[in-house]
Amino acid sequence: MRILSNLIVLFCLVGFSMQAQKEVFKIEDGNFQYKGEPIHIYSGEMHYSRIPKPYWRHRMKMVKAMGLNAITTYVFWNYHNTAPGEWDWTSGNKNLQEYIKMAEEEGLFVIVRPGPYVCAEWEFGGYPWWLQKNPELKIRQNNEAFLDSCRTYINELATQIKPLQVNKGGNVIMVQAENEFGSFVSQREDIATEDHKAYKQKIFKMLKESGLEGPFFTSDGTWLFEGGAVEGALPTANGENNVNNLKKAVDKYHNNEGPYMVAEFYPGWLDHWAEPFTRIGADAIAKQTEVYLKNEVDFNFYMVHGGTNFAFTSGANYNEDHDIQPDITSYDYDAPISEPGWVTPKYTAIRELMKKYVAYDIPEIPKQIPVISISEIKLDKKQNALKLIKESEAVVADAPMSFEALDQGYGYVLYRKKFTQPINGKLQIPGLRDFATIYVNGKYVGKLNRMNNEYEMDIKIPFNGSLEILVENMGRINYGAKMTENKKGIISAVSINDYEISGGWEMYKAPFDQAPQVNASEEVKDKLPVVYSGNFDLNEIGDTFLDMQDWGKGIVFINGHNLGRYWNVGPQQTLYLPGCWLKEKGNEITIFEQLNEDSKSTISGLVKPILESLSQ
């Protein structure tokens, strides 16, 4: 009997311990509660994928010194699921577990926004490009093929997050259920309301069945809660400055009680190519922050630190005037912590305000990472990029094939067609996605640009002539109804004078997932695409900003790292080069220049004052 009694006591103690552990963080009595006490969540969003891994801790210390107690991050499905069945959680900036554990070491909670859809001005809103290869699959709908893919992703993601949840002794306190689904519902009147409801409920169920414990939340504009809210998840607001509106909307969908949280409090905004930088004053943001603090509204700055859309990760929007609006490489976002991690007036204003309202200690601001200038990098090798691209094996088909049909996600494809007869007239590429430079017999003759709704031009092809079309994917649309139409390359027939050009199309893939290798040094005619390369040494290491003011359009690699796109339409005229990717000896630079309006021999790295003057 004594043994049995002891076992009963032991089981009771274990049960009590497990119950207590499960209640480390919860939503109860209209509050967030941590270890049984009410707590406010003052968070800043920053994405590990947009920050070089060696700088993660510096950025976290910056967040902590601004007075916040949490960071929020999206998880980008396509960043980790690099091909069907292939997952990467360790290379480069991809170690999500290390990022979360590092935040815990810095005394920060973590809020995870796993999607599957994330928006975030990120390529395809986080979806893998190859989902579009399945003709049965319908993005973000109550569609079995899509839901099966989502389930695979969510279960894989859960293996990374489950041991780091706060109720398991970690610091992950909340998980988002889908993202801004209310806005998607409002734009897709062609889909039945019942299908929308079924979809979001199935995603929520998948998250819970994967072993993620929550608490869960949704995130929408307050006027869109009807489409986005899910029973059992806390509804939070995006961009809601009016506290009364916030409380009214949350009460309606959350048992007439809080907590009240603005999950996306915008201290800045996104930027597109060929549009002015967006700027929001520090005073306005500090004033709105104080409104939240006075009214006990929790918040998450989106973004507290934007970082950079390295490589081909930037997404795109669209509007009535532009079929696509590609996002620039910089994701500075006019955030309190600038793209290279500097203190801004906005940062200082918020920090001083937080000191007045929070009871916990706010540490000193960490030292800024050193900035260097590079007076001149010699580009002593260059090669005709068309020739280089055509060194790969061509895919031949009767009609142009999309990137997806060619099993390519990003970068460029060169389409080539030979003509046995001369033809003059209007070249028409209505299926252009997104930017094309056109060549006849190896000579540049023009460009077409989906951003400006330019899909046709006059052309003259001689007897036995060749037409070459170099097409760039400038980022799949990440927001709105059209994100379900996201194939790239040339996705429909090419015509001249309304006559379809068919038969004998050659396609050369140029994904540039690695820096292209320059095999020779040759003269390249102006306006032909060219690959430049060079090597350089440094006396000291630090961050710098490549000066792209006199260049046309292209991408830059440094020591194998793709810094992202540049384009002379602006507003961005520099590329952020993190010092952690540099070394004292043997640095290598490779530039793929698409427009090449005049030959280059050098490039330089800018100092801070010049950079600031360019951003005004």
TrEMBL record:
Keywords: Glycosidase, Hydrolase, Signal. Residues 400-509 form the Beta-galactosidase 1-like first all-beta domain. Its EC number is 3.2.1.23. SUPFAM superfamilies: (Trans)glycosidases (SSF51445), Galactose-binding domain-like (SSF49785). Residues 1-22 form the signal peptide. Residues 32-356 form the Glycoside hydrolase 35 catalytic domain. Residues 529-587 form the Beta-galactosidase galactose-binding domain. It comes from the Bacteria. Pfam families: BetaGal_ABD_1 (PF21317), BetaGal_gal-bd (PF21467), Glyco_hydro_35 (PF01301). One of its GO terms (molecular function) is beta-galactosidase activity. Belongs to the glycosyl hydrolase 35 family. This is Beta-galactosidase. It comes from Zunongwangia endophytica.
